[in-house]
Amino acid sequence: MDCKEYIASGIIERYVIGAVSDQERREVECMSSIYPELKDELHAAQSTIESYMESIAVEPPAGLKQSILESIKNIEQDPSETKGKIVSMKPDKAESDQPKIVEMKPKSRLNWAVAAAVVPLIGLGIMYFGERNSRIEANNQLAKVEAETAKQFEDSLTGLRETLAQNEAYQELILDESTQEVLLAGTDLSPESQARVFWSDAKKQFMLVSDRLPAPVSSKQYQLWAIADGVPVDLGVLDKQSTIVSPKEIDLENIQAFAITLEKNGGSVKPTLDQMYVVGTI
Fold it and tell me: Contacts by 110-115 with C-beta closer than 8 Å and gap 24+?
């Protein structure tokens, strides 16, 4: 298999973020357990996701509370204008019979100073609460994005856990001392085709890697066969979306060979011999 072409397809990145089908996920898991280049690329993609999660950090904007308090402290009052004016209420002899007119002057210009200070404070307060509401909305949006990202990350972690479990199953079969790797070479019909069967007679299990078969037409599907005592035994049709057949049970005696034929969708009861693409003897 061309690992560079496989990596360039983008399936590794889609796998890490959980945007692949079950068949594609199993394919990546198996391939990464077989090819070190794919395993390294998978680890690199996982590290990129972890770095992205660590980079999410938002500092809340500074509030205006302190500036409002400082504005209040900076209001200066004129001491001379804060004292009350004493008006004598004793009538003058010459004016005892005349009504006294007392001029009512403003108590102080302090009221205007306070008013002048309050107006901008009200404006600052409006700005503060407007900014606060905007900040709350932004935080809500951020929380939503973080929740969605966390869910995607958790889904990815779940997929990675499943990957590790599946890889363990692949490795357990592939690395078992009783497992044989059977190379299925291309026939005259398709000399460039190739597939591999990992088969353990002791464990009664097999798995298939068919990464070098031409894509079938829409009305056709590949089918795997085991030849036991000269009789072909159906081992199932291959999924068109995957090049991996996960470990399966196989309880047959005297298996002599494995072969793959191209059949109608759903498979056939007997193999079509003139449509045999690969075959490998044990």
Answer: 110/77, 110/78, 110/81, 110/82, 113/75, 113/76, 113/77, 113/78, 114/75
